[in-house]
Each structure stands twice: as structure tokens, then as C-alpha cells.
Amino acid sequence: MKIGVYSNPIKDTDGAVKRAVFAAAEENGISAEPYESGNRYDFIISVGGDGTILRIAKDSAKYGVPILGINMGTVGFLTETEPKDISVALKKLKERDYLLERRALIDARHEDTHFYALNDVVVRSVGGRMISMEVSVAGEVIDKFTCDGYIACTPTGSTAYSLSAGGSVIGPNTPVIALTPINPHTLRTRPIVVGSFENIELKNTGPAEAGIYVDGEYVGGLNSGAAVTVTGWDMSALFVRFGKKSFYSRLLDKLNAWSVTGVQP
């Protein structure tokens, strides 16, 4: 068995957790090396938070390599284990004592550029001014309004930015894309959920420039009259899960720990 270790130096500042992964791998007779995109691995070990996982999710989908997330972030919806349990986790990998969970990505296109997102594609104002948006599904305009931005997200992304903007939480295996406006200046606009293979167009119809963000990363500007198209579900990232704890149980544990106690899990 061979693993690639992808560590976020901002989270693992002294490299202690990364070293612990390599030590646990040696202890369990597992070959380990720093992760390099395109190399062949049986598993990717992600050391960091959900943001760290977002950076390698596309590789997981492209090469079919499962991710085991070690949580060093704040919420950690996508991570599976804590630094103190690294040795136990790698032993379970070696003994094949795990389940694999699929999480779909959505496909976004702007001009000649193509992106995949595990969480979301967001069109958002960049200069502090509101932007004018026109949203179409399957070629039909479904809404026009002025807002701070607009989110198209996967079920995985429904617990991220979309949730903060008032969108619904969606089960991870539900074949849909959620559309959530950000601070719309209207009394009638609401979040919308559409089929996973619908063609969605987010168009900037106002004079102010907008920005396109894919999984939180700025990927380019969206000028007046330009649009980004979103569709999805032809690629999936794989995640290692231990035991049979459900998505909803995990969600409640995370959100309750964060909101009730005030301590970020």
C-alpha cells in the first residue's frame, strides 16, 4: 500500500502532524511520500481542514484515489479523524476496515476555461457594489435581481457558504444542484434546487464587474454581459469513512458543537 501525504503548512505549522503520519505509516508497513499530483497512490492523506481537502478533491475524482482527512481545521465536515488517532486510522486502512463515500463535483465553464468544484461556484461582487444577475435553467430565465452574489453548489457545498446564505442542507447522495442568492435586494427571491444535470447560467447583467470563485478560490472576472455556466455530476471524489455514522448525525454533531458551545469543532 502506498499513500501520498498532502499537508497544509498554515494548519500544521511545525509539521508535527505530517511527521506523525509518516511515523504511523512506517509503523504499519505502509509506503508514504509527500503527495504529488499524477503519482499513483492507494490513498491521499490530507492534513488540514475542509479547505485543504478542496484543493485535492479534483485529483481524487480524476485518479479515483480516496481521501482520508485529518482534521486540523475549524468545522471539518469532510475530514474523518483527529491527529491523536492517526495510528489507528492508518491501521484500519491497512486492514481494509473502512467505507468509501462518493461526493459529486459540479462542472463550471467560463469562456474557454473549465473548472470542477466539490463545494460551489460563486459569482460575487468584487468592489463593494451590488451586482445585477440573471439566472437561467435549461435556457429559461428563472430570476433577475440585484444582489451581492449567487451560489451554485453541490450537496457537499450545501453545508458551506450556501448554508450561511440561507440555503437548505442537502443529503450528500441527492442528485441536485442548489442555487442560493447572496443578499438579494428583493422580497421574492428564494433558494432553488434543480436537477443535477440541468444547464445553469449565471449572467452578470449590470455595469459592475463580478468575480468567479470556485471552491473559494478566485478564478477570474465576470464582465458585464458575460456568464458562467454550471452543470454537474459526471465526476466524484472518494472519502474514507470509519464506521457507519450517518451524514445527518455528523452534521448535527458539528453544528451543535459550534453553535451551542461557541467552540468550533
Query: What is the spatial order of strands in the main beta sheet?
Result: 6-5-16-13-8-9
Q: Looking at the chains present, what oligomeric state does this protein adopt?
A: single chain
Structural class: alpha+beta
- Overall morphology: elongated
The secondary-structure element order is EHEEHEHEEEEEEHEEEEEEH
Beta fraction: 35-45%
Largest sheet: 6 strands, antiparallel
Q: Give the tally of β-strands.
A: 16
Supply Rg. Answer: 19 Å
Distance between the first and last residues' Cα: 31 Å
Q: Average pLDDT value?
A: 91
Range of helix content: 10-25%
Q: If helices are DSSP runs of H or I spanning 4 or more residues, what is the number of helices?
A: 5
Q: Runs with pLDDT <50, length 5+?
A: 260-265
